[in-house]
Amino acid sequence: MTLQTMTQNVIATAEKPALSILDYSLSYKTANGLISALKNIDLTIPKGKTVGLVGESGSGKSSMAWSVMRYLPPNAVETGGAIRLAGEELLDQTPFQMADIRGRRMSMVFQDPSTSLNPTIRLGEQIAEVLMRHRGLTKAQAWAEAEVALARTGITRPKEMLQRFPHEASGGEKQRVVIATAFACEPELIIFDEPTTALDILTARQILDLFNQLRDETNVSALYISHDLGLVSRVVDEVSVLHKGVIVERGLVGEVFAKPSAPYTKQLIGAVPNPDRWIGVDAPAEPKTLIKLDGIGVHYGAPSKIQKMFWPEDAEKVGFWGAKDVNFEVRKGELLGVVGESGSGKSTIAKVLAGLQDFQGNLEIEGKTIGSRKVIDRAYRRRVQIVFQHPDASLNPRQKIGRIIARPLKLYGVVPREKIKARIAELLEMVRLPEEYADRYPHQLSGGEKQRVAIARAFAAEPELVICDEVTAALDVSVQAAVAELLVKLQKDTGAACVFITHDLNLIRQLAHRIAVMHHGKLVDFFDRPDARSEDRDPYTKALLDAVPVHTPVEAFEIA
Amino acid sequence: MRNFFSSPTAIMGTALLSIVLFAAIFGPMIAPYDPQAFDPLNRLQGPSLTHLFGTDQFGRDLLSRILTGAPSTVAFGVGATLLGVGIGSIIGVVAGVSGGWVDSTIMRILDGLLAVPDLLFTLLIVTILGGGMEHAMLAVSIAFAPGMARIARSAVLSVRTRDYVRAAVARGESGVYIVTCEVLPNALSPIVVEATIRVSFAIMIGATLGFLGLGAQPPSTEWGLMVAEARQFMFRNPWCVAIPGISIAIAALGFNLFGDALRDALDPKRSHG
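Output (structure tokens, whole complex):
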């Protein structure tokens, strides 16, 4: 080979995009015939660039990741197209050749670090394994290299971290290990599949910064898959919007944000909660207390009577406090937001209010004091209703929608027996579902529709307080907005108060009158919504507010 | 359930099961000979046109004996299982729903019982109660109860923490409503599947007891007993052991495969992919 042709080769590879997907289609074989997952996808990732793939659940974005990794389920049928890694056709590779490419030339970072690491193997070994397999290092070399890789991800004591097992590391640390593993062999392409979705806001922010820093250092090409437009705009150069297996829009991220052309993109951008756009109900004219939480504490794994008898001094240390000494009040007709990271105790408070969790301290409802879960009666339970996070789990799969909604009507005797049917229709209409849905089973409905049914069931009891425990977290952005608006409308119609628990600070600032911030089981901050940015906020509140993806100012094309 | 028959297991299981059930229902009516009629001149014959499956040591027609034995064999398997599933499920549901020390106590006792092998346990009970079909059936069902209780309990536990059950608790529903309307309908399918599979074990244990002389007594046409009686003539006419043996195998396999297929069809996680 002459020097000239060699140079030409080098130039040729340099110009070839890191990944190019041409006219690629994919279907899945199911009992109902072929179902198309991806249709004529064209996607190019130039060398050193990051391309975002944005879409809601079911849009096919994860299928795309698996097709590139060549790790499709057996019922997948590829119906044409090409996937080329630096010009090399991946569709022609044998599984054996792919095993060599995976990890060395391209790697993947998954959504949930707690399930993508093997819980029985030390973290160091998990990184070293990749290095030994693909770069042929000895064990000692690999461990040394793993330490360097880990240090690059900003872990303060990498050497100690290598010796730990996954359960001894926090979620953020684990995701750093996964990222270190992905970067370890300096691959040409890394696929990030929602790498921050399973992490809390502060950690997610750090991981994003880390991603940007590593990308600048290594000049790797990346495919960044996410459902969150705001988040994607922070890390990618170009973005493609995927809707039902078709790319509906592509372009530079700034342009797509500023001038979305496809209607779906407009809808998606419009649905992203904008903290400055208030959609909640008017605040109650005169604040009247509905429920007061007085020194509420929840001690998980509390010592038994016998343990207390023999080791009284350990009583405080055993187990852990899901919530400790929480005091606040819920006013009539208001929407109170409770925010915090996972494990902050916000759901614990929801369970206490709904009478699902034993607690210490007192609940006061209109002068009546409730000192323990056991004395909570049906009258209280009717006044306080709860809506859960996962609509799939909160509706009994063997009961029809009509029966599910009818149950509180019958149980509390809200309406006379002969009027139940009419009331069900009314309630369904209130949550904007057709009357015929009463005869359907939950699995015949979409996630958003199921959540509406759960909300209808809660409002069927004509409650004074509805607890919404992350009701929008399991839903897609566009559905989220609709559910939040529905909730506000119902509040307006019925005058019920609402405790809205969420980790989404943008959303809560659209809805809530007052906001409570929880951290490690304690109430750290409590303020009126307009005071969110005031100076005397708790440092933790400030940190949370700073970590939220900034809403791009796009008033110009807010959906009319 | 729509694509139940798309798996070979389901087709095979259903086919075998239909043969067995057909024999159990219509067997005694279509039997060509009297199952107890001796024919000393035609003892221990192989299959022929007059005796399709051959004859046994007393010259009784094997086909007729198999057909008349089918109802009692199937009834034994199904009956013992139903009884065992009933007892076991009640114990398991009680343990799963009440939780706490009630659950712990019940489950530790059942763990102890589970340590004894099914057959040994059955033998023990039959020895105490005395032989005979009814006692054998009772023994098998008692031996099944601990295993079924475990399955029922785990089914209940997996449902008990679902949000729709918690929603019912938060509504202030009574315990009876929660168990009968929210928990049980969703916990039923693993119990039904396990029961179908267990019928095959019951049939085999029943046949074993018959073989050991602790179940049905002569001149009953129970299949296990037929194997035992024909054993000493095995070398002169292998058919008289093989025919009832194969019948037992077909019945057991039929229920087993059908149960397996049922589990695949009812479990949404398995039916995809």
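The interface with chain B takes residues 30-31, 73-75, 354-356, 376-378, 381-382, 385-386, 388-390, 393-399, 407-408, 411, 454, 457, 461 of chain A (CB under 8 Å).
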